[in-house]
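Ticket reopened. Same input as before:
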Amino acid sequence: MRNLKILIIKSGNFSKGPKYLPNSLRVLEWWRYPSHDLPSDFLSKKLAMCKLPQSCFTSPELVGLLKASLTSSFLSCELMNLH
Amino acid sequence: MRFLNLDKSKCLRHIPDVSGLPNLEKLSFQHCKNLTTIHNSIGFLHKLKILSAFGCTKLVSFPPIKLTALEKLNLSRCYSLESFPEILGKMENIRAIQLEYTAIKELPSSFQNLTQLQELQLSNCGVVQLPSNIVMMSELTDLIGWKWKGWQWLNQEKDEEKEASSVISSNVECLWASECNLCDDFFSIGFMRFAHVKDLDLSKNNFRILPECIREFQFLRKLNVNDCKLLQEIRGIPPSLKHFLATNCKSLTSLSTNMFLNQVWFCLLLMYLI
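Engineering reply: fixed in the latest deploy. New output:
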């Protein structure tokens, strides 16, 4: 799934977080994301929409998430068309 | 990244440095009940249009902001939030601000930097201190407040000299201050700044006298003093008044009511003669 651009999970009951998320993701929406961390090798430069409501992130993990997105390039209007 | 949503993240205590996300347009961390601090970098996201911290109940302060693209700022239900963020430069894209259920005690003088603000709604706050330069905000037409514990002006002393020569009137047309614990001093301190008001709601307050200066409110068409249970005397009526509401004003004596009606008849007579 290296080309997956959109991942939306609004309900579900996961015992563990994912081991892998594709770096091709542009939209990541995951309600009650089941881990404190995103996968360590997840470094999506194209991630434009990150929606993680009701997650159990604390601040340090969030720093990791934001650093991963640090190099996010500006995304064209393509994203809006997807919605 | 353009959208970041961390709503209802119960473990989140701190919003870290977001300067690495210069393209953010929407940032939401509503109902993060343990959030107490926010990194200063949040105030400098120049593309940010929507910022919501609604329901962050432990948040006490918000860093200064200069968010030139910001259109919506939601800080309601931040029950512990004691002050509105300082506005470090002109922010010309905010038209309306609604703040309810906060502990905000004062709006900073820099609030004036919201140059295009038309509507300010503040409800269920503490004793609200408004900066006196709010009257200089030329676009502000609607000032809606209810359920305050009191009303005070900031920087009053500095401005008294200026005001001695001429009273600067705001462009506020609709002033609602219902249940704001207003006493008689409300009229003696700064009230004339609202001389251009058209719709004035002072219901459910604690003043005893509606003073004579109300006559100078030339544009006032609707005046509501319903449920002002201590109101004893109405000393004047504005010349353009069309609707006057004063039900359940239990302290109004028949004498003061008669005096008021006499004034009404006098005004009607004047209108007839002119």
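The helical segments of chain B are 156-165, 185-188, 254-273. The mean pLDDT of chain B is 89. Please confirm and we'll close it.
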